[in-house]
Amino acid sequence: MKKIAIACDHAGFEYKEYLKNQLSSQYEIQDFGTNSLDSVDYPDFVHPAATSVENGENELGILICGSGQGVQLTANKHQKIRCALCWMPELGSLARKHNNCNMVAIPARFIAKELALEIVEKFLETPFEGGRHEKRVEKISCV
C-alpha cells in the first residue's frame, strides 16, 4: 500500500479530512496536521510532510491551503521535492507523468472537494513517463 503524507493549514482542514476519509482504504496516510480550523502557519505542517517525502518515509504528498500557493512554495524549498499546484485533474496527471512531481498542492478556496479528490486520485495513480522527460526533471534541482 502506497504511503502518502498529507498536511494543510486552517483553510485546508476540511478538505484534508475529506481526502483522508476518501483515500484511506487505498493508501496509508500520515497526517501532519493541522487538526482544526484554528488559524495556523502552514510551514509548520508543510516542512515535516515534505521532509517525510524527501527521506522516503512517504512516497508522495498532498498539501492543501486556501490558494495552494503557500504550501507549494514552502514544499518546493526542499531540494528533493517537486510540488505542483493543481486545480484540474489533467494537471495532477501531467505533474506526475511529465515532471515526476512527488507532492501536489490543492487550492481549497477555489475548487470543490469532489474536484480536489479527482485531482488527487489522478496525481496518485499516474506513473512518471520517464524517457524524454527524465533529463528535464534531472535539470530542475540546483544541486
TrEMBL record:
The keyword Isomerase applies. SUPFAM superfamilies: Ribose/Galactose isomerase RpiB/AlsB. InterPro entries: RpiB, RpiB_LacA_LacB, RpiB_LacA_LacB_sf. The active site is at C65 (proton acceptor), H98 (proton donor). Pfam families: LacAB_rpiB. Keywords: Isomerase. GO terms for molecular function: ribose-5-phosphate isomerase activity. Gene3D superfamilies: Sugar-phosphate isomerase, RpiB/LacA/LacB (3.40.1400.10). GO terms for biological process: D-allose catabolic process; pentose-phosphate shunt, non-oxidative branch. D-ribulose 5-phosphate binds at D9, H10, G66, S67, G68, Q69, G70, N99, R109, R132, R136. PANTHER family: DNA DAMAGE-REPAIR_TOLERATION PROTEIN DRT102 (PTHR30345:SF0), RIBOSE-5-PHOSPHATE ISOMERASE B (PTHR30345). Belongs to the LacAB/RpiB family. This is Ribose 5-phosphate isomerase. It comes from Chryseobacterium koreense CCUG 49689. The lineage of its organism: Bacteria, Pseudomonadati, Bacteroidota, Flavobacteriia, Flavobacteriales.
